[in-house]
Design goal:
The complex is a heterodimer. Chain A has a single domain, classed as 3-layer Sandwich (Rieske Iron-sulfur Protein), CATH 2.102.10.10. Helices cover 0% and strands 45% of the residues of chain A. In chain A, strands 1-9-8-4-3-2 form a six-stranded antiparallel β-sheet, with no helix packed on it. A three-stranded antiparallel β-sheet of chain A has the order 5-6-7, with no helix packed on it. In chain B, helix 12 crosses helix 15 and helix 13 packs across helix 15. Chain B folds into five domains: 169 residues, FAD/NAD(P)-binding domain; 114 residues, FAD/NAD(P)-binding domain (3-Layer(bba) Sandwich); 85 residues, Enolase-like, domain 1 (2-Layer Sandwich), CATH 3.30.390; 71 residues, Arc Repressor Mutant, subunit A; 234 residues, 2-Layer Sandwich (Sulfite Reductase Hemoprotein, domain 1), CATH 3.30.413. The longest helix of chain B has 18 residues. Chain B is α/β, with parallel strands linked by helices. Classes of the chains: A mainly beta, B alpha/beta. The complex binds siroheme, flavin-adenine dinucleotide (FAD), iron/sulfur cluster (SF4) and FE2/S2 (inorganic) cluster (FES). FE2/S2 (inorganic) cluster binds next to loops of chain A. Chain B: Belongs to the nitrite and sulfite reductase 4Fe-4S domain family. Chain B: It comes from Jeotgalibacillus proteolyticus. Chain B: Its cofactor is siroheme; [4Fe-4S] cluster; [2Fe-2S] cluster; FAD.
Chain lengths: 110, 803
């Protein structure tokens, strides 16, 4: 069965800084996301906690499709959420939609 | 065909390598089960010395990863010890009461360190040096204790002693004979070694017999038979090892000094093999990996039903793994009556070579100071080659490449792993290898003690040519082959102005670099062109981007400047008010003589700074941190100079400066040095009539005592000399090298001579002024820039259900 998705407005695209992350709290502290605008203009949204020791990924250094965790420098692919070798793990990724300059994140309904 | 059950007891270097050899010959024939008392996958025991010496970490010495066992279908029981073997029913039992049956059993239980049975040897603080646990115990002891004694002046003892020195302990090495490593070295080499190690800070107590370990519950000293007592907090016993053959013996497998095996490593009991340090072959028990690996190979052939000549014994060679000391020995060391020798003794360069000859054949060698020829000599000894073969080649040896070229393909390069020149050359050519690490990955060469790395590297240069040359310079990071010097040259020559441009023009392998090169490029660009460069926030580490230190829970700390550690009631009141207003959970006095507010939320940072209305202390910066000061002439009865005043001047002059790594300074007003100038990047000591300027000190991970750079008369000269020194550091250091590492690389004399040149000195000062002229306070800058405030400090909050 198809999963229902909830479309949540998170930012206006022009207001997002390039190659820097921003923290987004959805609901009352339930969900914390890191949203990134890459240098090619694409938007990436991932959960804002590093699988290593919970570093806030929104403050990481962004290089292409990857973000380096600010705590101990794990390298994480923002498209598929995979931690890059030699470390192992993955973070949740979220799909986005951009309409009229507005960025929406698609969250699973619950 | 049904698979045979192969059980290995002992998850160590010899056993696991033997299993690797079995799998290489027959990957389908066996169900392999491995038991290991240690709770780790197979690791490189040899490298424990390097772990202790701080050159590598425990995490990096794994030889076979957990995945390797999985991928090869090997059932591993780590942390489980086999307690008995029933050789009739072919089963074993473990301490977890597991019972497993076998078709073939390999014993590879290694050895146990021999502990001198001294009274008091059971006290806390007495340890061996054999496994990860021992290593961790020593590292831990070094955190709370100062003094260590190593009993045993052999290979293991000296490596342990060097490690303990690196960990900041004072070390005495106790040895019962009058020369070090007397089992491997002759007298001359032993004495040279002692001199060299004494220079490194080791203290030797030779011809001493230990009698008792004294102390309450923990060791407090070591008493010798002559009655002398030496104080110590830690005793490391490195006096030898004994085959670990208890299990075999109790199970009725015949033993002598080790478990008795034949040329095929079979014990006297059917289907039971033994390999490694626990095995005795032709009255020899080996304690180095090269022979153990050869044994494994022969044993694998027998287990897989292949024919082979069997194991024929090995000639031993050793190399000491202590940085700065090159020692090698192989084969016979002690001259007998009919032995002749070829000797070279160059006291000036500290080189000693001796090649022993019996009946015209090479039988042994000792090298000190220059060990390049080690592997070659070992090969000659193994072949029992005539001495002419060595002498004839001596001329060619000066040109390293010729030596490599003239080696036959069968010549051994990596003694530990038995890898020949031919095998390496083939791998380089077939797989296009260009780095030593790749060769290691493909052939095993240099995977154990690492002693053959220089040879492998020569061989790469010879075989892969330019491709290898490219790889040899230290490149900035994995995205490029350019070194720092080359990148700086290119930036200047091509007028490059931002990081992405550098990466594009110089052909970086990734479009936007990585967390290593981006901050480095950002620094080099800013340093080369201070007036015009636009600092890139997105190429800064989080602390420097946000001008605050991130904490493990994602909050931040705030450290305002407190010039020279001097404060006043107004500032303290402001700090107190801010702490109340923003409910700061912790206020702490730092080690840098100022106050730190911990646990501030990111979105509160700008308001906290604005309320404080004090400059940033840059506690996050690769730049000037603190200038600690002592009380000084105005109050202290010993003070000769106004240390606080000078400290404040220094801090005001250099605050906000970007440097390759952080810079810490101090000013003390007399040699008592209360502001700890000997561990600062720049430490000033005021004396009656002059100032001493010390540089390159470090109190951090790698403790380093500062060197005296200059003595000057006036405060003005202190400021200028410091500026010249720091600017030269800014211009030539690798990003993330502290001054301590940089001074070591450059050499103090070189730095002195650069600063002694009047013209250069003035130019350095001039460029420093230029760099300082564009400095801005990080907090103020953020507060004045609305976009920056939004981009960096705001979080978004959105309700969950909004559409
Ligand atoms: C706050 C302070 C500890 C304290 O409460 O006393 C401190 C805290 C940190 N130190 Fe330190 N160091 C502090 C004085 C020191 C000192 C002592 C000194 O400066 O007199 C040293 C040894 C002296 C030296 O540097 O030579 C010191 C050696 C280090 C090192 C190792 C540097 C090295 O070259 O080996 C690091 C790691 C680094 O910088 O890469 C480090 C890194 C850190 C960081 C920034 C770790 C980080 O990157 O997040 C810590 C931030 C903690 C936090 O949660 O905010 N800290 N740190 C001290 C701040 C002084 C100040 O007022 O600015
Ligand atoms: C600090 C240090 C430096 C060294 N440097 C060098 C060097 O430079 N060059 C060199 O060639 N060699 C060096 N060596 C020696 C080399 O490490 C050993 O020769 C080699 O590790 C021996 O391999 P092994 O498999 O026989 O024994 P080990 O590696 O000791 O493996 C035996 C394993 O079996 C386990 N075991 C024992 N009994 C049981 C049981 N009943 N059930 C389950 N498991 C059991 C043990 O816990 C151990 O993990 C060094 C050793 C040390 C400690
Ligand atoms: S010593 Fe420094 S880096 Fe280490 S925990 Fe303490 S504050 Fe953090
Ligand atoms: S928390 Fe992300 S790397 Fe450690």
């Amino acid at each position: 069965m198809e999963k229902m998705l909830n479309k949540v407005f998170v930012a206006t695209i022009t207001e997002l800084p390039e190659n820097l992350g921003r923290t987004v709290y959805v609901g009352e502290g339930k969900l914390e996301l890191a949203i990134f605008k890459l240098s090619n203009g694409k938007i990436r949204v991932i959960e804002n906690r590093c699988p290593h020791k919970g570093g806030v990924l929104a403050e990481g250094m962004v290089s292409g499709e990857h973000v380096f965790c600010p705590m101990h420098d794990w390298k994480i692919n923002m498209s598929d959420g995979n931690v890059q070798a030699p470390d192992i793990g993955c973070v949740k990724t979220f799909q986005t939609e951009v309409q009229n300059n507005q960025v929406y994140v698609l969250l699973p309904e619950n | 065909m049904k698979k045979q059950k192969l059980v290995l007891i002992g998850n160590g270097m010899a056993g696991v390598r033997a299993v690797e050899e079995v799998l290489k010959l027959d990957s389908e024939g066996f169900d392999v089960t491995v038991f290991g008392s240690e709770p780790y996958p197979n690791y490189n025991r040899i490298q424990l010395s390097k772990v202790l010496q701080g050159d590598t970490e425990i995490a990096d010495i794994t030889l076979n990863t957990w995945e390797w066992y999985e991928e090869n279908g090997i059932l591993l029981y780590p942390g489980e010890t086999v307690t008995s073997i029933d050789t009739v029913n072919q089963t074993i039992v473990t301490d977890k009461e597991r019972q497993v049956s076998y078709d073939k059993l390999i014993l590879a239980t290694g050895s146990v360190p021999f502990m001198l049975p001294l009274p008091g040897a059971d006290k806390e603080g007495v340890t061996a040096f054999r496994n990860i646990e021992d290593c961790e115990r020593m590292i831990e002891a070094s955190l709370s204790y100062k003094k260590a004694i190593v009993i045993g002046g052999g290979l293991l003892g000296l490596e342990a002693a060097r490690g303990l020195l690196n960990l900041g302990m004072e070390v005495d090495v106790v040895h019962n004979s009058n020369t070090l490593m007397d089992r491997q070295l002759d007298n001359t080499a032993g004495k040279m070694l002692q001199k060299e190690l004494e220079k490194q800070g080791m203290n030797f107590l030779l011809e001493k017999q230990s009698a008792e370990i004294v102390g309450e519950s923990r060791v407090e000293g070591l008493r010798f038979e002559d009655g002398e007592v030496v104080k110590t907090d830690l005793v490391v016993m490195a006096v030898g090892i004994r085959s670990n053959m208890k299990l075999a013996e109790e199970s009725g497998i015949p033993v002598n000094r080790g478990i008795l095996v034949n040329d095929h490593l079979e014990t006297e009991v059917p289907n039971v093999f033994a390999v490694g340090e626990c095995a005795e072959h032709k009255e020899m028990v080996y304690g180095l990996v090269a022979p153990l690996y050869q044994q494994g190979k022969e044993m694998a052939k027998r287990i897989c039903g292949e024919t082979g000549n069997g194991y024929q014994g090995s000639v031993l060679s050793t190399q000491l793994k202590v940085s700065g000391v090159d020692v090698f020995s192989a084969g016979q060391i002690i001259e007998e009556e009919e032995t002749k020798s070829v000797t070279l003794f160059d006291d000036w360069r500290g080189v000693y070579k001796k090649v022993l000859v019996n009946d015209g054949k090479i039988t042994g060698a000792v090298l000190f100071g220059d060990t390049k020829e080690g592997t070659r000599l070992l090969n000659l000894i193994n072949k029992r080659a005539p001495i002419e073969e060595y002498m004839d080649n001596k001329g060619a040896e000066e040109a390293g490449a010729d030596l490599i070229a003239s080696m036959p393909d069968t010549e051994m390069i990596c003694g530990c792993n038995g890898v020949t020149k031919g095998a390496i050359v083939e791998a380089i050519n077939a797989q296009g290898l260009t780095t030593v690490d790749q060769v290691k990955g493909c052939t095993n060469a240099s995977r154990s003690c690492g002693g053959c790395k220089p040879l492998v590297s020569d061989l790469l240069a010879h075989t892969a040519g330019d491709a290898f040359e490219q790889n040899q310079k230290e490149s900035i990071c994995a995205c490029t082959s350019y070194s720092k010097e080359e990148v700086m040259e290119e930036i200047k020559a091509k007028g490059l102005t931002y990081t992405k441009e550098v990466m594009n023009v110089l052909g970086w392998s990734s479009d936007e670099g990585c967390s290593k090169c981006r901050p480095a490029l950002n620094y080099y660009l800013g340093m080369l062109n201070p007036a015009e460069y636009h600092d890139e926030k997105e190429s800064r580490y989080v602390n420097e981007r946000l001008h605050a230190n991130i904490q493990k829970n994602g909050t931040y700390s705030v450290v305002p400047r407190m010039y020279g550690g001097v404060t006043n009631a107004d500032d303290l009141r402001k700090i107190a008010d801010v702490a109340d207003k923003y409910k700061v959970p912790l206020i702490k006095v730092t080690g840098g003589q100022r106050i730190d507010l911990f646990g501030v939320k990111k979105e509160d940072l700008p308001n906290v700074w604005s309320d404080l209305d004090m400059p940033s202390g840059s506690a996050y910066a690769k730049g000037l941190r603190t200038v600690k000061t002592c009380v000084g002439a105005d109050y202290c009865r010993f003070g000769t100079k106004d240390s606080m005043g000078l400290g404040i001047k220094l801090e005001k002059k250099f605050e906000g400066l970007n440097t390759p790594h952080k810079v810490k300074m101090s000013v003390s007003a007399c040699p008592r040095n209360c502001a700890e100038g000997s561990i600062k990047d720049v430490g000033i000591t005021g004396l009656d009539g002059e100032f001493e300027i010390y540089v390159g000190g470090n109190g951090g991970t790698h403790l380093r005592k500062a060197n005296l750079l200059a003595k000057v008369k006036t405060e003005e000269e202190v400021l200028e000399t410091t500026a010249g020194f720091l600017q030269y550091y800014r211009e030539t250091a690798d990003y993330l090298d502290r001054t301590s590492a940089w001074v070591e690389k450059m050499g103090l004399d070189h730095i002195k001579s650069v600063l002694a040149n009047k013209k250069t000195f003035i130019e350095l000062n001039h460029r420093m002024d230029e760099a300082l002229s564009v400095v801005q306070d990080g907090w103020k800058q953020a507060l004045e820039d609305k976009t920056l405030l939004r981009d960096l400090y705001q979080n978004l909050k959105v309700p969950a259900g909004s559409n």
